[in-house]
Amino acid sequence: MSAGLSQASVKSQIFESLLGFLPDWVQITVLALIVLAVVASWVVKIKRKIAHRRAVRTGQPVHAAARYGQGRGADYLGEYAPQQTQQQGSGADHPGTYAPQARPAQQPSGADFLGAYAPQQRQADGPSANASA
């Protein structure tokens, strides 16, 4: 690989050297499969574009993930996306029958609630009762 070659010609030389070791019928088959894959990807892309335009033209709602140029890749879940309506929870966030039962009218508790040990309010006869103590 000489320094005067462009990036595309370097890639084509590598490709030609890899195919050069194979018989002619394998080379032709590999090249035909590559061309077929490129044409098939173009056809799929054009079909998606036409379907998107038809949906927009007829006024059908177009899902955000189904917009043209989207709807594929690692971030697109498609039919595996979680549904909006969940019939029943499961997993660690939904303990089911093991969930603690709600108590009606639960009394306060904890360190700040003394309950029966709270000091009782004594009603004095007047302000002089506290002063004599």
Shape: elongated
One letter per element, helices H and strands E, the order comes to: HHH
Report the major sheet.
none
The secondary structure category is: mainly alpha
What is the typical, i.e. mean, pLDDT? 74
Please work out how many helical segments DSSP would assign.
Answer: 3
Outline the low-pLDDT stretches.
none
Query: How many runs of DSSP E, i.e. beta strands?
Result: 0
Radius of gyration: 38 Å
Q: What is the rounded distance between the termini?
A: 106 Å
In which range does the helix fraction lie?
A: 40-55%
Beta-strand content bin: under 5%
Regarding quaternary structure, how should these chains be classified? single chain
Quick gist of this model?
This protein has three helices and no strands. The protein has 133 residues and is mostly helical. The N and C termini lie far apart (106 Å).
Overview of this protein structure:
The protein has helices at residues 7-20, 24-58, 127-131. It is 41% helix and 0% strand. The chain is mostly helical and 133 residues long.
